[in-house]
Design a protein that fits this description.
Chain lengths: 322, 243
């Protein structure tokens, strides 16, 4: 049985749902990772990782290379066994959930069998999942029109990736685990893939890794930041940006006055081109106050919240300082 | 059963798309047959039958060995290296269904090769359809299950860079040491002792007896059954160790 928890609504989707319930809602935890530690030989790859993913939630796992993202995916899929900790998918072990056809995955490596036609691969996958979709339903979704009769070894890298997504999609499972799904895809294919995840698999639980922070920001309800095998952040993209990224103040100033402004603010100015500069600050009010003192020299002042990229950079800097 | 059927159908499809490999698997036995059977005269009496029939059965066994080894050995090793086997572990497909599908595919391909070589023998003269060819072919075909199991064991022992060398070594070694290329009576006695321990010899020996009008040797059946069980067990152990 999946566990049920009460949680504060955070994402827009959840806020809408919870408005009737004074900010609280009942959620079904679909995936539960509890104090997971994984070691490879003597190296700790994942260290005390915990995360609950609700039914219908999309969780993005972000982190630099070697952070343990794929290892976490491997544990969630039952390919790897944790040294400590527990993983449950809808109350079952990962292996049992996979066996029951409740999980579909797109692994990082290209795993298509040689000499098999795309149509045959999809037919096979379709035959082994209990609630699979019809093949025509996934052709357009994955952008594999015209590839059904091609054998795997004749496909380009991007085409292979699209077929791999079609394999995960045709399974129509409750939990979709996507390890760097857009790696090697062109822009159009990326858009198509996320569009499918967002619309066709709406309401399904999705866990994905990516190096594209804008994808994480746009398509996840929450982001898990993993650095050196440890959880360094777990929240909605907005909350992470608010809490971890430094805001910026942007304004226009003549080149001849830049040094004066920099000295006055006590902060380095970054050139944005076209006469505009920005400063990173922990205290926007103080910067705005200082700029107000030079009202004749500056114009077009605006404050900008930090991006997920800023969050990431901030975390990496903190990690280096440790 | 449905999973095995689905996988067998899938694997057979893959095999058909890579039919070029059949040229290599068929090329050696058919080429050897055409060369050596006619060189010494197909009608020449030999081992209670004719040289043509005797050598055709040797080459049928040789072809069945090559086919089963290639399908279960090479293809499974490449599937492992390419990540297909790993991917199957994140689907509801049990790995045993995949492996069983590989064996079924190997056996279907082996049957096709057995029939093609017999057809070549019948068409090129020196072999009569009145002989118990079906019984002999069936004996060889069932005996090739030992090599299907050995192929799986090799696939889990050797990685993709070594599997081809391993398969070729076992394939040619089974042909030469199993007395399939040269009748054992023309070789030093030590080769007879070696051959008796090799499944390829036992496969061909059953067929040689049947086409000569003699009964099926129970010893051959027992040895081959032991090889199937032994290689199957070895494959299972290697699979568990690999995973």
């Amino acid at each position: 049985m999946a566990t049920v928890r009460l949680t504060r609504a955070t994402s827009p989707k959840r806020r809408k749902l919870s408005a009737r319930n004074e900010g609280w809602q009942v959620q079904t935890t679909w995936l539960s990772v509890e104090r997971l530690t994984f070691r490879y030989e003597s190296r700790t790859v994942l260290d005390d990782v915990s995360v609950d993913v609700a039914e219908g939630e999309a969780l993005a796992i972000l982190g630099p290379n070697g952070a343990g993202k794929t290892t976490l995916m491997g544990n969630v899929l039952g390919l790897l066994g944790p040294a400590h900790g527990k993983i449950r998918i809808a109350g079952a072990s990962p292996q049992d959930a996979v066996k029951a056809g409740r999980v579909a995955a797109m692994l990082q490596e290209n795993h298509l069998p040689a000499f098999a036609r795309v149509g045959e691969i999809l037919s096979l996958i379709r035959a082994v999942y209990p609630k699979s979709l019809a093949i025509p339903d996934v052709i357009q979704m994955a952008g594999i029109e015209g590839l059904l009769n091609s054998t795997a070894e004749k496909l380009s890298g991007g085409q292979r990736r699209r077929v791999q997504f079609a394999m995960a999609a045709v399974a129509n499972a409750d939990l979709l685990v996507l390890d760097e799904p857009t790696e090697g895809l062109d822009v159009e294919a990326r858009i198509r893939l996320w569009e499918a995840v967002r619309t066709r698999f709406k309401g399904r639980t999705v866990v994905f890794t990516t190096h594209d922070l804008s994808e994480a920001e746009r398509f996840s309800d929450r982001v898990l930041l993993l650095v050196g095998g440890k959880v360094r952040g777990l929240d909605t993209p907005d909350a992470l940006k608010k809490n971890l990224a430094r805001p910026r103040v942007r304004f226009r100033v003549a080149a001849s006055h830049r040094k004066l402004m920099g000295d006055s603010l006590g902060l380095p100015l970054s050139d944005l081109g076209d006469g505009r500069v920005e400063v990173l600050t922990d205290d926007t009010d103080q910067v705005l106050f200082a700029l107000a003192g030079h009202a004749g020299l500056v114009s077009q002042i605006e404050t900008v919240n930090g991006s997920l990229t800023d969050v990431f950079e901030q975390l990496m800097k903190r990690e280096e300082d440790r | 059963m449905n999973m095995i059927f689905a996988f067998s159908k899938f694997s057979l499809g893959r095999l058909m798309h890579n039919a070029r490999y059949l040229i290599f698997v068929l090329g050696l036995p058919v080429g050897f047959y055409e060369l050596y059977a006619h060189m010494y005269g197909t009608a020449t009496p030999f081992a209670h039958t004719s040289w043509g029939v005797y050598f055709m059965m040797s080459m049928v066994a040789f072809g069945a060995v090559g086919t089963t080894l290639n399908v279960t050995g090479t293809q499974t090793a490449l599937d492992r290296a390419g990540g297909w086997v790993r991917h199957l572990k994140v689907t509801p497909v049990p790995v045993w269904a995949y492996l069983a599908g590989q064996v079924v595919t190997a056996m279907v391909a082996s049957l096709a090769v057995v029939m093609i070589i017999i057809l070549v023998g019948l068409l090129s003269g020196g072999v009569s359809w009145r002989l118990p060819l079906a019984e002999a072919a069936l004996a060889i075909w069932l005996g090739s299950l030992a090599y299907a199991a050995l192929g799986l064991a090799l696939a889990h022992w050797l990685d993709a860079t070594l599997i081809n060398y391993g398969i070729i070594l076992v394939y040619l070694g089974s042909g030469m040491l199993g007395g399939l290329w040269t009748p054992l009576k023309y070789l030093p006695p030590v080769f007879t002792s070696i051959a008796r321990a090799i499944p390829s010899y036992r496969m061909a020996d059953m067929a040689w007896h049947l086409v000569a009008g003699r009964t099926l040797p129970g010893g051959d059946v027992a040895v081959l059954a032991a090889y199937v069980a032994g290689f199957g067990l070895l494959g299972g152990i290697l699979y568990v160790r690999r995973n």
